[in-house]
């Protein structure tokens, strides 16, 4: 089979669930004659996504910036905290319980506090998204930096490598697949967190669109906002997966 045909066939398992979902969705709406304000059909949602009544570009850019900011904060804070935990046992003993405490806090409950402290805008949404997404990066970074074969560390000591060189040349490459795997989880968590922030403390963004359309029961627009959120999340996840395939190709087999 030609290479182009193989590439098309490889996309079938990826596209098939979406096609089945949309087909079942359309069939359910037509067969049960569901009213539009309860469940609009796929075509109505597509029309709403391209409609001019809502300034989609403004809301998409606002939400996209909040998601990217939340992801960047979660990734950088997670790697730094995970490195600190792996570097020092006293730091690990003192920091780990506090991080678990922060992780189990109900983020929806503290979102109004961020609004009170920071006001309306993008920063509360970014912080909520970062709080939801940072913990997997912390754990995976610490595990990747510490779970190393003793032979590799002994090899570094045989050559009298200093601690910082062992960290950069042995520990960090070993941790890279763990970190990249956690970033895939963080990519989706950042989307959830940023949108949750927009539900509570925002005057723009796709989450704000969903909240404002509830009063008017404009369900097609709400579904259109959900579709745009999903597209942003898929793009971010795909970008992280692509970076992981380039930065750590040796780990891709085990990741699947």
Describe it for me?
It is a single chain. By secondary structure, the protein is mostly helical. The protein has a single domain, classed as MetI-like (MetI-like fold, Orthogonal Bundle). About 85% of the residues lie in helices and about 0% in strands. The chain is built from 11 helices and no strands. It has helices spanning about 5-30, 40-50, 55-85, 90-105, 105-120, 120-145, 150-160, 165-200, 205-215, 220-245, 250-255. Helix 3 packs antiparallel against helix 4 (about 90-105) and helix 3 (about 55-85) packs antiparallel against helix 8. The longest helix has about 40 residues, at about 165-200. It is globular. The mean pLDDT is about 85.
Main sheet characteristics: none
Q: In CATH terms, what is the architecture? A: Orthogonal Bundle
Per DSSP E runs of 2 or more residues, the count of β-strands stands at: 0
**Which class in CATH terms?**
Mainly Alpha
* CATH homology superfamily: MetI-like
The average pLDDT value, as a whole number, equals: 86
Domain count: the total is 1
Protein name: ABC transporter permease
Family: Belongs to the binding-protein-dependent transport system permease family.
Domain ABC transmembrane type-1: 60-244
Membrane topology: Multi-pass membrane protein
Could you provide a short overview of the structure?
The chain is mainly α. The chain contains 11 helices and no strands.
